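Give me the fold.
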Amino acid sequence: MRITIVTIFPDMVKVIKEYGVIARAVKEGKLEIDVVNLRDYTTDKHKTVDDYPFGGGPGMVMKPEPFFRFYDEYVEKFGKPYVVLTSPQGKVLNNEIAKNLAKREKLVILCGRYEGVDERVMNLVDEEISIGDYVLTGGEIPAMVIADVVSRFVPGVVDEESLKRESFYNNLLDYPSYTRPREYRGLKVPEVLLSGDHEEIEIWRRKESILKTIMRRPDLFLKKDLEKEDKIAIIKLVRELMECSRKST
């Protein structure tokens, strides 16, 4: 997969391909990430990418010409991409959106700035994406978030089993994790994790994941299609809660 991020601050964005899982995937050829300076597609000596809005109003608007020049060059070189614009007006990014984007062979992410982009640029855009209901100073951080999330669903970048155990994968939050030491400042690792009983450990993890989701993100749990393992964990959880209730009375 090729991900291309178009920005007026390339140095801010290019670090995404220099660290961690993404850097390894790029090195191994499983993923290509290009960072393009939009100013390279201007024609004046000041490399101007913005101008005053017609009709007046505060702030500046990103000009259409650099975006179109970039797009034409990209299509000629690589073929037609799927184009995303970072925008607070877009759909809020989630796992399903990321999975669908990861199926694209060529993904271009345009970083908005100032008061937004000239509306004519929308003729190039397939989808607007937001990372939350708030406004940032620019689209670079959202673009990096989108690229990071999408990259994880590209085959071979992250182990499939690891993906399945992560929060949100199946509308469940992740279970609690522990490492050594077994006890620290009186806080102990749950005995079941030290038991070596893999079946019981799996039930415990599923149970904790379900409980955390119900308590913190009930909206996610309502979307969850319960599997057999979920039902077993819920039965065990209910029994434990009933037992605790009896003991307290």
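The domain at 2-161 is CATH 3.40.1280.10 (Alpha/beta knot).
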